[in-house]
Each structure stands twice: as structure tokens, then as C-alpha cells.
TrEMBL record, chains A, B:
The keyword DNA-binding applies. Keywords: DNA-binding, Transcription, Transcription regulation. InterPro entries: GntR_C (IPR011711), TF_FadR/GntR_C (IPR008920), Tscrpt_reg_HTH_GntR (IPR000524), WH-like_DNA-bd_sf (IPR036388), WH_DNA-bd_sf (IPR036390). It comes from the Bacteria. It comes from Palleronia salina. The lineage of its organism: Bacteria, Pseudomonadati, Pseudomonadota, Alphaproteobacteria, Rhodobacterales. Residues 8-75 form the HTH gntR-type domain. This is DNA-binding transcriptional regulator, GntR family.
Length: 228, 228
DNA sequence: GGGCGCAAAGTTGTATACAATACTGTCCCG
DNA sequence: CGGGACAGTATTGTATACAACTTTGCGCCC
């Protein structure tokens, strides 16, 4: 209903649209994604919606429960740790490669990204800021020219957004843009080793800002029941 | 037709069955996977088949071409390099963790795996040997108790099987089991550093045994035309 | 005889109808 | 008054019908 139904939405377009909404915390963890609702919203049949939800479930952004429907995923503390563990294996080395391949155009793009993120934060658009923050990391992987790793990181970043929604402790907004700024400096100097180290510490800081005590499943079934 | 249709196949069961067939090189790269054919083979409607094919396409094992159908993926040399690049970022450290957590039961399982692989090679069942070889790597990730990384590695291993089908240069069968045996020794000693180094070199050896010159796309559209 | 165009067949894309399962509220019984 | 069973409602699972597109083969024209 709030979606533009001028053109017909493709499966991938719907999946991307939903992923963005999840990433921006417009669809919080546990939200029920009813097939009829989505079909009506996008002006298409359930067939396409189901395919899109299946795609998102493969990215661990949506949990499918047989005969019960699709819900925005709710990563456990364990899953949260694992996601950042995987990122810490992939992203520092990727940042290293990216630093060595960095061009002026790439630097400008990353710089614009940081600026936009800051603007979003000032405007109170936290969801949009989080999305831009993720895009910064994704852009680094793209610059490293590693399509396969980029795809993996893309999924991990989106999952990280869900993790932040559930386990974020204190608002360390400044920390974020600061870390990205420091990375940008290393990139500008084409200092691979520094970029690698900065990325590694950045990810460690991110995990440190989470509260992953095992009392996690409160939003699990309780919230889900209320959500609908 | 050759499939058992006693019980009804689920989407995931079909996807797993197809993935196994691809992994074992029973379905070589470029093979057309017609929806009607599969639906008849498994005794279900195209609905489920389409969902399974969509799932496999998300694992990069199947390439979907709009209005043309599904084909077993044909990784490019570049993609091949990237897959092993990703594996070399993930698996050595994972082997390290696995070594530290190794139990007697785990060792027995890995040992049995190597034995089975050897038996398969002796029997000339190369596809089965390749599957078992992949399972060895997957088992290591499981032992490391990293579900998320395990899922990523699982996909990369299956893709590696496609890469081997396309770019394998010489049969270095012995090398394979030798490397796994050396890893097993390190695991038995709970020597994480050694396991990490062995895994790293094992993956380098694998890439070295490939012929990734950019004359790759011969099997691309030519073979696809003949295949059907 | 070669090349273009059109028509027919086959395959995939999408929507919809129906079946199966889970949820909700009510009624009856203890 | 509380608990359990049952029926109604709603939602998801699967199959099928139809539409759109691609491919293929034939025929006509140049």
C-alpha cells in the first residue's frame, strides 16, 4: 500500500527492498512478514513474495518457519559472535588489498559515504546512518576487487545490522565515523598494513560495544507474539 | 524416473540431492536442469523444483538465466581464484581452532573419512572421493564449532568441486590424501599452528594444481549447446 | 541457393485455486 | 471458575492453469 506499484516488482527487487528496510531497522527483528501483506503491498502475487523471502532466508535475514510464516531473523548471541568472527577473518585482509588498489575516485566515494553518514546522524536518521556505515565496509570489499568475498561480507554486514538492533549497548556513534575516517587516511596513504590493523580493531570495537550475555532470547518468542 | 518417489521430496531434500550430484560430478558444469524433467524425476510439481533451483543459485552452484532455465554453474577462472582466496582466509584459522578443540571422536571421524576417500579412489569412484575430500574440510569447520563460517565454507567447497571439474590439470590424487593425513597428525597433537600452516599450504597446492589461464570459456556456451 | 521472417513447439514466469496446517475464540464439562 | 476440546478463521504449502518468452523449423522472397 505504501509501495509504488507503477512498475511490477521483480523477485530480486523485492528482496533488495526488504533487505534495505531490515538493514535500516524499519523492520525490527521478529517482525512477521506475511505473504498476503507483502503481495498486496508490492502489487503482485504471493509467488514472487515467496521467492523473495526464500532468498532472504538464505542470507539469514529472514527465518522461515514451516506453516508459520516468515519473520525477520533474530540472531542469537552465539550467532552474533560468529558473524563478527567471520568478518574479522575476511575484512582486515580485504582492507589491506583495497588500500593497495585505491584510486582517487574510490577515495572520493568513501569520503562522500562518511559525509553522508555524518549528515544522517545529525538529522537523527539512525537507520540510514547504519545503512551507510555498512555500505562503507561493502565498498571496501568492492575496491579490493574480490567479488566472492564481497558477496559474503555483504551478507555478514546485513546480519550485523540485526545484531546491532538486538544487542547494541550504548550509542557510540562518534566512534563509528572516527574509525572510518582513520581507515580512509590509511587508504589515502595506500598503507595496507595500517588499514588491515585499523579494520581489525574497528571490528573488535564493534563487538565490544555489544551486550552478548546469554540472556538473549527475551525478544525471541515473547516479542514475536506481541509483534503481530 | 531414477529417483525414489516413495516419499515426497521437500525443497531442501531436492536441493541437497542435486548439490551432491553436482559435487560428485554426476552433473557436470553447464548441464541444463529443466524444471519439467526434475519435477518428473522427483515426482513433484515444478513449484518445489523452482524453489530448490533458486536455493542452489544462491549458493552459486546453479546459474539461472531468465526465460532460459537453470544450468549447473561454470565458474570463470577469476571466480575460481576468488573462491580459493576466500577459503585461504577462512580455513587455516578455522583449522587452528579445530585443532585446539579436537576430541578422540572427532579424530576417529576424520580418520574414517580419509580411509573412505582412499577406498573410493581405489575403486575408481572419483566423484565420491571428491565428495569425501570436501566433507573432510567441512568436518574441520564443524569441529571448530563455527556454524556461520561452516556455512560459508560449505558453499565454497561445493563451488570448488565445480572449479576442479573445469580446471583440474593433472590427477594428484595422492597429494590429496597425503595433505589430509598430515593435517590429521597435527590435529592429533592439538598443534594449532601446524594445522593452520598445513591447511594454508594445502589450499595453495590445490590452486597450483589448476589451470586457470584465461582461455576458460570454451565449455561456456559451446558445451551448453551440445549438452542438451 | 542463401537469408529473412513467421509460425509452431517447448520452456519458463506468474497468478490463482485448492489443500493442509496452525491459530483463535467459544462452548461444554468437570 | 478453570481447563480442554472443538470449530471457525486465517495463513502457508502445493499443484495447476495460463501467459510470456525463447527457440526451432519451415517456407517464402530476393
Amino acid at each position: 500500500m505504501n509501495k509504488i506499484d507503477d512498475t511490477s516488482w521483480s523477485r530480486d527487487a523485492i528482496a533488495a527492498d526488504l533487505e534495505r528496510a531490515i538493514h535500516e531497522h524499519r523492520l525490527p527483528p521478529g517482525t512477521k512478514l506475511g505473504e498476503d501483506d507483502l503481495a498486496e503491498a508490492y502489487g503482485i502475487s504471493r509467488t514472487i513474495v515467496r521467492a523473495a523471502l526464500l532468498a532472504l532466508s538464505h542470507r539469514h535475514l529472514v527465518q522461515l518457519r514451516r506453516n508459520r510464516g516468515a519473520f525477520v531473523a533474530q540472531p542469537t548471541p552465539r550467532e552474533a559472535r560468529e558473524v563478527f568472527e567471520a568478518r574479522s577473518l575476511l575484512e582486515p585482509r580485504t582492507a589491506h588489498s583495497a588500500a593497495l588498489r585505491m584510486t582517487e575516485a574510490d577515495l572520493a566515494l568513501l569520503n562522500a559515504n562518511i559525509r553522508d553518514e555524518h549528515a544522517a546522524l545529525d538529522a537523527g536518521e539512525n537507520g540510514r546512518a547504519l545503512l551507510l556505515s555498512g555500505q562503507f565496509h561493502l565498498e571496501v570489499a568492492r575496491i579490493a576487487d574480490q567479488t566472492t568475498i564481497e558477496a559474503v561480507i555483504s551478507e555478514l554486514i546485513s546480519r550485523s545490522s540485526l545484531i546491532i538492533a538486538l544487542y547494541w549497548r550504548r550509542r557510540a556513534a562518534l566512534c563509528e565515523t572516527q574509525a572510518h575516517h582513520a581507515l580512509l587516511d590509511a587508504f589515502a596513504r595506500k598503507d595496507g598494513a595500517a588499514a588491515e590493523e585499523l579494520m581489525k580493531n574497528h571490528l573488535l570495537d564493534l563487538v565490544a560495544s555489544l551486550d552478548l550475555r546469554n540472556v538473549a532470547p527475551p525478544p525471541a518468542s515473547l516479542r514475536e507474539a506481541l509483534q503481530r
